Structure formats: structure tokens, C-alpha cells
Amino acid sequence: MAKKRRKKSRAFNQDMKNRLLFAFVAFLAVFLLLIVNLILINVRFGKEYEQVVLAQQGSNSSPIAYRRGDILDSNGTTLATTKKIYNLILEPKNILEKDENKEVTIAALKKYFGFSDSDINEFLKNTESYYEIAKKDLEYEQVKPFKDYLETSEGSKVRGVLFEEKYERVYPNNNLACHLIGYTIGTNDGQGGIEGAYDRYLNGSNGREYTYINDDNSVTKSIETPVNGYNLVTSIDANIQSIVQEKVDAYMVSEGAANVSVLVMDPKTCNILALYNSHSYDPNDAYDIEAVRYQFKTDEEFEDFKKNATDEETVEALAKVWRNFVVSDVFEPGSTYKTFTIAGALEEAVVDENYKHVCDGGEQVDTYYIQCHIAGYGSVHGELTLSQALENSCNDVLMDVAKQEGAEIFDKYQKLFGFGQATNVDIPGEPTDADFESVIYHEDTLNVTELATSSFGQGVCVSMMQLGTAFCSVINGGYYYEPSVVQRIEDEKGNVIDNLENVLVRRTVSEEVSEIMKQQLFMVVEQGTGQKAAVEGYEIGGKTGTAEKLPRGNGKYMISFIGFAPVDDPQVVVYVVVDEPNTPDQSSSAASSYLFADIATELFPYMNIYKTNDNYDLDTSDTPDEVATPIYDGNAPSDDVAGGEENPYVSDSDEPTTETTEESEGEYTEGEYTEDEYSDEYSDEEYYDEYSEEEYYEEEY
Questions:
Q1: Closest Cα partner for 331 from 666, 690, 685, 653?
Q2: Interatomic CA distance for residues 699 and 590, integer angstroms
Q3: Are 65 and 206 in contact (CB under 8 A)?
Q4: Which of 76, 167, 221, 262 sits most deeply, having the most CB atoms within 10 A of its CB?
Q5: Cα atoms found within 13 Å of the Cα of residue 197, Cβ hemisphere only
Q6: HEC states along 118-180?
Q7: 469 pLDDT more than 80
Q8: Closest CA to 192 of 329, 279, 277, 319
Q9: What is the pTM of this model?
Q10: Prior bond to 483 cis, omega within 30?
Q11: What integer pLDDT is reported at residue 681 of this predicted model?
Q12: pLDDT (tens digit, 9 = 90+) per residue, 46-78?
């Protein structure tokens, strides 16, 4: 019996061991599972739970500013950046706690920051304070020597000195490409240009530093890292921009005009290489009232304005400076528009290269006799081929070409070339499709008179961006691209976030017509009205434009030239518009052609555009100008511009103005749009035309 009991006992003990082992393994598995879950919870929700704990322990927090992204040109040159600056903060309570620390700290403050004894006494008079601002907006170079000193044995005794860090937006090239870049209010509120259009990419999100007291009265800090903004790589070439600005500024000093604007584009892609308006500003101080000096005839008037102007008047004057004429304003282009009339007629085979027409000085159209510009010389062109008509900029021939096209075909090519619609350029301030549509005549409004005048660019209104983009398509094989500035978005480490591909919208003309147009435009410069735009040794194509401004007969003109090189493989387009050149006879001024040549002389070598003829003998002394004879010969209709009184170009024409020199008469005032088209911030300012960030991205992206 005893043996049996022993066997049962051994069996019982083994069974218990197995059960205990199973329990242990199960407990261990549960324990490990809990640990894994705790780790996962900490990874996924640790920051959130940490905030709850901080809130329960009486914490305080302060933001850590993110860094706004940089804007770079196509070569990596910095156009806009953000630098860190520092406020020097003193803690009198801690400085005064020990005499030894006090002496070392005061000596260091005097040595590295130039404080006097009276300064120090003023900072330390509130002996219980932990926060006194001693200096603001110190740069790193001013702070570094002191920080290096703190690393020494003597410097380690310094107490109660710290630095608050913040960022400041900086434009290292001052006014260079200001209308392309824009500016910021504060550090991170982008306004105008790239700064406004790409605000959401340039901005990041703030981090936060949390400080709280533990149960044992020790201090613990927790940091949430800020996310910096993206950098933008643009198509702007700072060197090309510098060439343009230097040449325009020199012209404004030597000759003067109401305004000069220049647009430089890559014709293969419609990327913008440079853009300049002669009345510029420094984005580092966009509210500097000195920028509006050109709006006044005399220094006395300007000084009176500075002293007595209301805030509203000041912002209105500044808004004229900020406004980007190339993108936002419309005007009658004049004869540059003939390029598109002829291109459309060739594409539709309405005319061919063998076409001829006799210019007898003008055409009777309905009740109006509309003159050719040659009438200003008391002459006629006689019989001209299509190419000769463009070379000589003959209104008479162009009216006949448009007549053969008819309203339907003529309007078809207006639309194909993008007139009457926005280009969707990635710079804010462009009018809407509806705005543009109202300032040209369409098929239903192109009666015989409007068709005739539209053929040579009077009565229709365009922007420089529209015409420049359309012109690129004529010479690049007929490819119409959306014009653009920003090409790539990168993070702060240079990783590409997004490559912004060029957007091909449509074909305008065939390769064959494009080749014909390039040769005809070459002949304009070779032996036509564009000879004064020629540069020795280079094959250049282009077209002059001279438009009589409103009201008709006032002697004021818009002079323009758009050209490209080389003719066989265009690498660059330069569009120059001179508004009311400061000359006795504006209509005969070749200001835009001369300015084009001045820019091209320096630009072409920089862009490695080579000469094709070193023996080129350039003499334009006898070259006639394209005189803009009043087309109606004093009998102009009261509403001969599309849109009538609603056209901003029309409503702008009757305002009193001043020019850039004391000898000038009148004042240049740029176009206006209705109040509801302006950004919310400037909704009561008639001259400021930029979308808000939300409106821009809702429409564009």
C-alpha cells in the first residue's frame, strides 16, 4: 500500500510541475505582449499622452519657429532666403544670485555687446525679474563670439544670459526681380509674385517646446521639432535679370518714359527668364515710401505727400509700385499683333506666300477711312507681298488679309493664340478669363471696322504675358505652353518633392507656318521697320509695335518690340514695351527697338548665342521709324476699344498723370480692375490686383 501512495505522489508532483510550467509560459507571453503593446502605444501615441501629462502637471510652452523655404534662380543663386536672428535676454534674478557670477557676466556683456555701466544697471534694476530684453535682432556673427566664450572655463561662470531665436526674410539682391519674387509681411505671409503664389509650399509648421515641473520640483523639457518650408527652384536667371535691369535703369536716367517693362522667355518652354518693370521696390522694405517718388512732378510735391498722406493714400501709392505691369495690365499692342493675323491666315490657307496687295495709304471701311502708318510720311507702300507687308508694317495690307479671313477665322486664331483668356502663369495678379474676354472683339462683335483695326492691334487689348506667350508659339513650331516661373520644389536637404513639368496647352500653327513666320520676322529686322533692333553679327527676328493711346489724338503712344534669336533655332525671346517715351514725338520713337538691341548686345554672348556673320555692316541711321499715324485721321469713334468704358485701359486713359522727369507732362497710371478682384487685404485699394492664397490655389491647383 505504501508503494502505491509513493507512485501517486510522484505522479502528482510531475503533473503540478507541468501545470506550473504552462502557467509560467502563459504569464511570460502575456507580459511580453503587454510590453510590445506599450512600445507600440508609445510610438504611436507617446507625444499625445505626453501632452496630457504635461497639461496635468502645470506645464507651459513656447513655439519654435519653422524656417520659410528659399527661392533660387536656375543656377542656384539665392533670390530670397530666411536667416536666423537673435534677441538677447537677461535674467537679473540669476545674474545677481552670486557675486562671482555677477562680475563675470557683467564683464562679458560689456565686452561682447558694448553695454555701458548705466545700461547694465538699467537691465538689472528689477532684481526679481527673469526676463529683460537687452538687444533685438542680433545676427549670428554678433552672437557667436559670446557663445564661444561660454565654452571656456571663465565663460562657464556666466549666469542669466540666453538668446531667443527667430527668423527674418531676406532678399540678398534687393530689388532684383522684385515683381517676380514678391515680398512678405513679417516673415511668413507671402504677398505678390512667387512669395504669394507658392506661400503654402514655402511655409512649414511651427514646433513647440514644453517645460513643466515634476513632483520633486525638477524641470523637464519636451521638444516638438518644427517642419521647415520647401525651397523653390525657378527658371529666373539672375544674370539675365541683372542685364535687363541695368539697361532699363540706364534708359530711364538718360531718356525717361512713363514706364518701361521687359519680359524675357525661353521660347521652347515659355519659362520666364527675367521680368522687370522700371518702377521697382526693395522687397526687404516693401513699404518704403521712397519707392513712389516717380509718381510726383517735383520733390516738393513728394515731400508734401509723405507728410500729409493718409494711410489709405500711402498704400494706394505703394500698390502702384507693387503692381506687375507685365502680368496685370492690358493695353493696345499695335503692330506686334500683325504677327498673329498673318500666321492664322497662312495656317488656314486664306493667303499664301505669293499673296500681293496694293497699299494706297488706307482703306474705306464702313463710314471710316482707316489710314496706314505710311500716310504719316505723305506716301503709300504700293504693291507688297505678305512678307513685305510685315516688314513694312502695312496696315492697309493687314486689313485686306483680315477681310479675307473673316470674323470667324480671325477670332478662331485669337483664341488659339490665347488672346481673350488668362495664360495661367504662376504669378498672382493676372486678370480672369472673363476680364480678358471683354477686352478683345469676338466673332459676334467683329463688325467690319473692328475686324480691320484688330488686324493691326488697335481696339484689342492684351497683356505682355499673353502676347509674349503667343509669340513663343509662333516661332517654336506652334506649341503653346503655359508660361511658368517655378520649376522644382525641394525640401531643405535638396530632395525633389515635385518637378513641375511644362504644360503644353495646344497647337497654334504648323511647323511649316512657323518656319515661314520666322523668316518673315527675320526680314522685319533685316530690312524692315525693326532694323534699329539689329545687333551686329546676329540673325534676329522680331516685330515692332506702335499703338496710339486713348483718348485718340493726344499724342501719347505705347512703343514696343518683340524679338528672338537665333532665327534658325530660337533660344530666347525679349519683349520690350516703352509707355510714353520722353521724346517730342512719341509716335516716331524707336525706343523699344534701341533698348532691345542694348539688352541683346550683352544678353546673347552670356547665353552662348553665337554670331553668324562677323562682317555684318550695321548702319541704321537712315532707317525710317514706324510712325503711328492716327488711324482715323481725327475722326475716331468714341468707343473704338473692346469693352468700352468697362475696359480698364479705357477708364485709365482719362486720369491726370505725371511722368518721370520734371519736363514731362501728365502722370502714368496703370490699369485698374474692379474692387472684388483684389485680395482681401487690399480690397479697398483700386490698384492692387492679387489673389489671396486660397483663391489662387483653388483656381490653379
A1: 653
A2: 40
A3: yes
A4: 262
A5: 23
A6: HHHHHHHCCCCCCCEEEEEEECHHHHHHHHHHHCCCCHHHCCCEEEEEEEEEECCCCCCCHHH
A7: yes
A8: 319
A9: 0.81
A10: no
A11: 37
A12: 555 555 554 445 456 677 889 999 999 999 999
